[in-house]
Design a protein that fits this description.
The chain is of the alpha/beta class. It has one domain: Rossmann fold (3-Layer(aba) Sandwich). It is 33% helix and 15% strand. The protein has nine helices and 13 strands. The strands form three sheets. The protein has an eight-stranded parallel sheet with strand order 6-5-4-7-8-9-11-13, sandwiched between helices.
Amino acid sequence: MPRKAPKRRRSADTLPTDSTTHRASSPSSPPSAQPLKPHDRSAVYAFSRDALRRLDRLAVEEFSLPTCVLMENAAAQLFSCVLASRGDDTQQHTPPPGVLILSGPGNNGGDGLALARLLDNASIPTAILLSAPPTPPSRFAPDTRTQLNVVRAMGLRLAVANEEEPQSTFDQLFRELGTPTSPPIIVDCLLGTGLNRPIESNSLLATLIARINHARTLGATVIAADVPSGLDADTGKPLGPASAPAVRAHTTVSFVGMKLGYTASAAREYLGEIMIADIGAPRRLIARLGTPLSNKALFSTSPLPASTPLKRARTPD
């Protein structure tokens, strides 16, 4: 299939006007993701964190659809976003950037670990920074633990944030994966939609969020998996300290649908461009548990900012 016309690498504050979705097993065959037009919003659903928990549970109970399948599809959508951000390797005068993935112990972190495998298979320099030690294994969600075992068996670059000086590990990987003129792409998979309490100012998580935001000022492209870490997905309010309220993403790849908090004005500076990514959740569950964004009550209380770009990406096949 012919490749799309190459794009220039964008600067830190310039977002792409379109995006592509790639098959995880065949990066050279991308079906296009179409921009979500205003009249399409009736087909877009927003979800609370409780609704997403129910969706995950019912996908297993009613449809025998395991979480690991949704995780693989989520990773494939992130993979597509990373490829679009890197641009065309043959058109660049400097080596294209590597990818630094920050992963937590929850399912959001599992998405990042699965992404790392796809990137490594595509020969893209990749490193993973874990926010928690891999032992004891019980601290990781079951499917995330499986993904961790896979990337360790593959010999991927894996580091654990030092509790005393987490910024030093981050900075070392950041330097290894890029250059001052071509900084690495950062994929934020630290925290998911379950965050509902403040992040302590002196915590490891607050430090990592601050380092991600600092890297953005150095020109790094930041992609958030499902939700920028530190942002309350229900309210759209940042829960981090003043020094690091939440990750400021260039693109948020929002799985299944929008999150209720993304319609709040407080969220807009952290979300960047929103890409709604289909990860294969049953559409009957989506319609049952989601709130249509055309709902007048929803928009009258917290209108979606007109400046927030929306795109839809379909499940890679």
